[in-house]
Amino acid sequence: DIRMTQSPSSLSASVGDRVTxxxxxxxxxxxxxxxxxxxxxxPPQLLIYDASILHSGVPSRFSGRGSGTDFSLTxxxxxxxxxxxxxxxxxxxxxxxxxxxxxxxxx
Amino acid sequence: xVHLVDSGGGLVQPGRSLRLSCAASGFxxxxxxxxWVRQAPGQGLEWxxxxxxDGSTTYYLDSVKGRFTISRDNSxxxxxxxxxxxxxxxxxxxxxxxxxxxxxxxxYWGQGTLVTVSS
Lengths: 107, 119
Hints:
The complex is a heterodimer of chains A (107) and B (119). With 107 residues, chain A is mainly beta. Chain A is 0% helix and 47% strand. In chain A, the strands form two sheets. In chain A, strands 2-10-9-4-5-6 form a six-stranded mixed β-sheet, with no helix packed on it. In chain A, strands 1-3-8-7 form a four-stranded antiparallel β-sheet, with no helix packed on it. In chain A, strand 4 (33-38) and strand 5 form a beta hairpin. The mean pLDDT of chain A is 95. Chain B is mostly beta strands. In chain B, strands 2, 4, 5, 6, 9, 10 and 11 form a seven-stranded mixed β-sheet that branches. Chain B has a four-stranded antiparallel β-sheet with strand order 1-3-8-7, with no helix packed on it. The mean pLDDT of chain B is 96. Classes of the chains: A mainly beta (107), B mainly beta (119). At the A-B interface, strand 4 and strand 5 of A face strand 5 and strand 10 of B.
């Protein structure tokens, strides 16, 4: 199975900051990567798919990039409502579609 | 809009069975794959299973293969997760989730249902 790692595991930032989270796959997954946001007590929400495509309704301050094994999620102009844990997920070839361990963003 | 309502969770003893249900609405159910994902207390997300749009194809995480069965009823817009021989480590919030046009991408999630396995 493909293993996903994320860094950092947590971070603290201020409103207006630019935050970058990285995700690494154990093998080449081309651009088959999603990013999800999980707010406390809420179900996950899709932010980005295919590594860099913003899901409908997601604010443009979120962006994703990368291919192969190395990916990143950037949040520009961090807002209080961005307090959440962020997970990457690979969907290369056949299941299982493994998630990264998550990055908790505190504000 | 897409609406997924998970139900069926609760307290269950180790070794017993439980069936989770997911009622879908707001989209053309019978053309999308459906997934189950769980999140144990204080832990990350764990993908469990997916069923194709017509129910003919399923895939599972190895650790639940043979114990859990995903299925769907397109006449009722329902997805199910039959959980047999549950273990303490199956304690988690279970989410039903919709696949996108690319069945591998989960684009919408239910609110989750809590399963607690304990004697």
